[in-house]
Amino acid sequence: MPTPDGKPAQAQVDQAIDWLVKLRFDSPSPRTEQQFQRWLSSHPDNPLAWQRVSTLGEELAGLPKGLSRRTLDGSQRQRVSRRDHLKLLGLLAVGGSLGWAAREPLGLPQLLADSSTATGERRQWQGSDGSRIQLNTASAIDLRYDAQQRQLQLIQGEVSLDSNPNDNRPFHIDTRIGPLTTFDGQLLLRENSQGLLLSVRRGEVTLFPGSAVPRQVLPGEALQVGSNGSIQALALRSDPWGWTDGVLSVQQMPLAEFVAELGRYRPGLLRCAPEVAGLKVSGTFQLADTGQILQLLSRSLPVRVDYRTRYWVSIAAA
What's the predicted TM-score (pTM) here? Predict the structure, then answer.
């Protein structure tokens, strides 16, 4: 049965981790696909467990091949133990975005985020100071106010902040790559594999305010900030603010990049075949229905969309 807070039971989470490892690093046979589909339908909690665990796919993809293969071999010989699961997640914490906190959907130890979203979910609200905050898919933040300051910690994912300029307290923002400060800024922060994407629409934002050479970021700037503190101006193929209006807006983006971006909003696996990876995608797509976006791709490009299951989709040449 589901837990009282609506999360899947730990037994289903453990099984979903087993399947994630098998599907990510093996070449699944038709028999394996049938077994996976039977598992999905064998318990009402399994689809929810799979949806939440599958957000670990990016971190698993970053593991060394030898390690991933050994992990897979172990799971095929015998059921991966709970302790082994925690070891795997510990490795992910060292090298991936789990470093700030364990994934909230797994029910593992975490920093007890004040606000979080599941895969495909977006939330917006107004803070007690009047600032407007939006969280994108699979994201989490902590938010604290006191008499001297306002503070936001980006635990994972992506957030936009429209700071209330009538509040005289500074707004301090903590991220994995370092701190930022603003008084009246409207800004967007997104964790990615290179570090942090920062975009500013209004006001002035100070990056690394406590450093010897703080960087002032002005409206209209979009920067990629590396984990080593490097800063690079970006020429983007997509509107980084699009999701705040519920859309994915791109211009001449390679299909492989588009599929990776779209995959952030869908539970499960979404893959693009190499032979169509370079096809270009342009347009504005409504994120409320990712299935419709996939249909549009099949109509506008020489590709077909194959559904092995609801959570396992491949895009290949038509």
Answer: 0.69
